[in-house]
Every structure is written in structure tokens, then in C-alpha cells.
Amino acid sequence: xxxxxxxxxxxxxxLDAGPKMRAYFVLRxxxxxxxxxxxxxxxxxxxxxxxxxxxxxxxxxxxxxxxxSLALNVRAVAKATVSGLPAIIVRDEIRSMQRRIxxxxxxxxxxxxxxxxxxxxxxxxxxxxxxxxxxxxRIVFDVHNALHRIYGQMRADEPSLPRRLYLxxxxxxxxxxxxxxxxxxxxxxxxxxxxxxxLGAPPEDRAGLTTIPxxxxxEDRALVTQVPDPKLVLHMGTMFWPPNAQGMxxxxxxxxxxxxxxxxxxxxAVIGRHPPEALVALNADSSIDVLGYxxxxxxxxxxxxxxxxxLHAGAGMRVKILDGxxxxxxxxxxxxxxxxxxxxxxxDALVADDPAAFADAVIRLLQEPGLRQQLRDGGHNMALTxxxxxxxxxxxxxVYSEVLGx
Length: 406
Known about the structure:
Layout: E1 3-8, H1 18-33, E2 35-42, H2 48-55, E3 60-65, H3 70-83, H4 87-91, H5 95-107, E4 112-116, H6 121-130, E5 138-142, H7 147-156, H8 161-181, E6 187-190, H9 193-198, E7 209-211, E8 232-236, H10 242-262, E9 267-271, H11 277-280, E10 288-292, H12 298-302, E11 304-309, H13 319-327, E12 331-333, E13 350-351, H14 355-367, H15 369-385, H16 389-392, H17 394-404
Parallel strand pairs: 1-2, 1-4, 2-3, 4-5, 5-6, 6-7, 8-9, 8-11, 9-10, 11-12, 12-13
Helix pairs in contact: 5-6, 7-8, 10-14, 13-15
């Protein structure tokens, strides 16, 4: 049994976002065989009950407040311009996190330090640097996604010239940073083959180097009982994440009018924390509800004929597809939205990329109950088999065995 220090940028509970789901089930797997200490940034909305839940199966949980302000953002951009580092990495250099890690590494000692996401990789490297030379920990990096790909895709759709120039600069800085980052770790785990290639990692596995997809716990998600003749089109996601917001604006402006022409009684609901003003403004359309965060989405899930993933920017895996499959919802996604997931078009989801094709797929689900049932059955089976953490995350045991030499 090893002692593992698990570093995460988001408190991985409740499971209301993709990064949380990834970190949570990796934690659950590691805690089966190891003593795991968690150090996590926290935000005002993070509840003490969530910390207590994590502490119920971890050795201990330490929290550090995440500090955000306009002044710190300006400082980060200035420092990044001088150093050549990505601004989003510099922004997350928080001294209180460094102090907490240094205390734990020096006074407690660990066999391994686990960095969850790129933003925490700098802290794993810091932990190894400040540790007693006689007991320096091994370090493992869960990469999640290739961030520079996201910034490159966002640049193409950005109308503001200053913002576009910032995205160009940040994409280049991130690519340099990410490609040299993972080789510095004793173990690196990627989520998709596409991101693995984008970061310059070899396609062949070797000791401590592999690809493990994001998985879910189907047993924790009840299969939704749908109402007869559902007419709701639903999107759920973290709406302050620009790719989600951009995707929904594209859908509302370019796809939704086509849907209403054929199914005028259809309704669109958007659920997710902190939607930007441009999305909130869609509430002026009587057929659209931008709801923000919803504690219990069950009534909306029961009315859903089409669960949409209209993304045109992103990397890693879209956990919302795994959520939809776990609930038994019929899914329409772009090719990019399905990237890294073993989707079979027509069997467990419908895949479409241009406005006309995406609208046609949504209309079919609004009008064809047999197709809805087919996708419901196929998707739920995928969640139960291919993306069940209880089956797939034993691969994490192998990674740690290889890294620790046990």
C-alpha cells in the first residue's frame, strides 16, 4: 500500500462536471489499494458536505481557496508575456497551495504525487523539488486533454480581434508547455488517442504511459423514464466554459430555427452554471429556456427527446455523452463532441456537423419514437460495458504498479 498525494484543481464532488467525474472515480480506484491524501482548490460554492464525502474514503482532504480577480489576471498575462508561459498556467500559481504541498511533502512524506489536469502539473513538479532528497516521490500526470487544441479551435470562431490575437498567443504557448510537460513525469495517462498524438506522445504503451478513457458509474445514474411524446431538446454543461457556450450559440442561431420550422411545439432547455450574457439573452425567445444551474434535472430529463452536444471546440472526452448514455437519453453530437468515445452513428448516437444535418437529426428524434428507443438502448449498453469505471479503472492499478516498481 502506497501513500499518494492527489492534487486537483476542482473539488471532485458532486459529479456535476467532466473533470470532477474523472478525478472522483480515479480517486475511488486508488483508494481501494492505497492511502490517498487529497489537496484541492475550492470555490465559494463548494460545500463542506462534499469535503466530508471525499474524506469518507480518503486518508485526509485538504482544501485551498482558489483566488481569482481582475488584478491577478492582468498580472498573469504580464508575467506570461515575459516568461513565454501560458497565462492560464501562471494564473494558477497560488502561494498558499505551494505552502500546503510543501508542508505535507516534508512532514508526512509520500510515495507518489498525482497531478490531476495540466493546471496541477506544476505543483507535482514542485512537490518533488521540495521533498527530502532521500524520499522524493514518484510523480504521475493525468493529462485530461490537450489544451492548446481547444484554444486553436476557439480562435477560428472568435469575432473580436484582440481576443483572437490572445488566443493565437495562448495556443502557441500552451503547445510548447504541454509537449514538454508530460515527459517530465514518471507516469502519464491520456484520455484519448487524439490528445496523446497532439502532445507528441508515442502511440505505443510503455511502463507508466497509457491511455485510459473517462468513465462513469452507471449504477449511480437511474435510467430515466421518459414521458410519452417528449418535445424537449436539452443541453447540459459547464456554461462558463467557452466551447460549451460557443456551441450552444451556434445551435440556437443556426440549427434551432430549422427545427422549429418542422416541429413548432419543440422547446430548448440549456442547463449549466454561470451562462454568459449572450446565452442568457436567448431567453427572449419563448421557445428557449436558459436555466443556469439546476439542483435536480430529473423533470427535464424525463421530457427530453434529444440530448445535444453541439461542440466545435474541445479536447479530451465529453462526459456529457456518458451522462446521456447512463440516463438512457437519445444523443445528437458533432464529430468533435464524440471524439475519443466509441460512438456508432445510428446505433448509440446520431452524429452531424453542419446546421442542416444537425437539425435533421434532432427533428428525427422529436418525431420517431422507434429511433429514440434504439439510441436509448444502444447508448445505455455502452455506458454499462465500455465506460464503466469499475471495469476500466483497474488499468490505474497497473500504472501505479509500474511507476512504483511494485
